[in-house]
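Changelog note: in this version the structure field was regenerated for every chain. One regenerated record is shown below for reference.
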Amino acid sequence: MTKLLSIFRHADAQQHPRFSDYERPLSASGVADAEAMLGYLEASLPPIDKVFCSDSVRTLETLEIFNRALALTPEQIISDSSLYLASTAELIASVEALSNEWQHAALVGHNPGLTALCNFYTGDALRELPTASHYAIAFETDDWTASDHSTGVLQSFTVPQQFKS
């Protein structure tokens, strides 16, 4: 059996002094980028069992847009404050804690932790996971705790610019 981990970085957020980093909403270009991903998500992504999303404003807004294609129920979405600017070690611990009943789980969060997580699992050398992107990793296992350094295989890496003219 294969486990699939979808990693989503939030879309671009506004830079404004009235917002703390945590409170920054999506920018107009961030909304457009997230919306550009909808056709791909709807056509290409297998159903997701559970999504864990940082509770920052920009990640929740990104997931809200993506969910137009993903069609997740409220029970499938967990807003998780520990994912806000989580370190690689914290993200790995989150993946290892996933229930083995879930074949496809997703994280919605922030850099630099997400980029490091992608590189850790696949041995990739990403410099930066772009905003509003999707990075999918497959693990040939039935047990999330068996996911380890370079045990994942990149299934897809999709950025919104692929769908813009």
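Spot check on this record: The two ends are 38 Å apart (CA to CA). The CA atoms of residues 91 and 128 lie 16 Å apart.
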